[in-house]
Specification:
By secondary structure, this protein is α+β, with helices and mostly antiparallel strands. It contains 7 helices and 5 strands, in the order ααααβαββααββ. It has helices at residues 4-7, 11-33, 37-42, 44-59, 76-97, 126-131, 135-146, and strands at 62-67, 101-109, 112-119, 150-155, 161-168. The longest helix is centred in the N-terminal third of the chain and has 23 residues, at 11-33. The chain is globular, with a radius of gyration of 19 Å.
Length: 175
């Protein structure tokens, strides 16, 4: 702390930073592999509903969940990916949007399970978030890609945010 000028170029400090970054990445991977018990005990939709109730109680964000029957359409890995993406999108809405309400829609469309997570909050500049390396957005995209799906985020300052997740139904052509 006594050498602010020299600290930036200190190779020892760089090594410590790299080690910490690698450790954080490993922890993130381990945590992402953990499967919430509710997912296996209740199924995807009830697990999402249980999560939204808990989030609503702790944040005050009112969350509407509307779903079509999708049981058995996704592999366990795809269910976990979709659950975690919904969780991340709602967590972002609760922390950053300033919205009083959010909505989760889950249904089936063209050989995919499609989930839309939307809020009418303050929104953000998507290009700026991508330039600054928004970890949550990257994580959602990675999770979806891992199971052959995609994430599309629509947002603009003052215009709310909409996250659209498309995950292929198991056994159907991915495309």
């Amino acid at each position: 702390r006594g050498r602010p000028d020299g600290a930036a170029g200190d190779p020892g400090l760089d090594e410590v930073r790299d080690g910490l970054a690698a450790a954080v990445e490993r922890l993130r991977r381990y945590a992402s592999d953990l499967r919430p018990p509710a997912l296996d005990m209740l199924g995807l939709v009830p697990a999402v509903e249980a999560y939204t109730r808990t989030l609503a109680e702790s944040t005050g964000l009112e969350i509407q969940v509307r779903t079509e029957p999708i049981a058995g359409l996704l592999t366990p890995e795809a269910e976990l990916a979709l659950y975690r993406i919904i969780q991340e999108a709602l967590s972002n809405a609760a922390r950053h949007s300033g919205a009083a309400e959010a909505e989760v829609l889950i249904g089936r469309e063209d050989g995919h399970v499609v989930a839309t997570i939307a809020d009418a909050g303050r929104g953000f500049d998507l290009a700026e978030a991508e330039r600054s390396g928004a970890i949550g957005l990257l994580g959602m995209e990675e999770r979806a890609a891992w199971v052959g799906g995609s994430v599309h985020v629509q947002s603009e300052p003052g215009g709310g945010t909409r996250v659209i997740v498309r995950i292929p139904v198991q056994g159907e052509e991915r495309g």
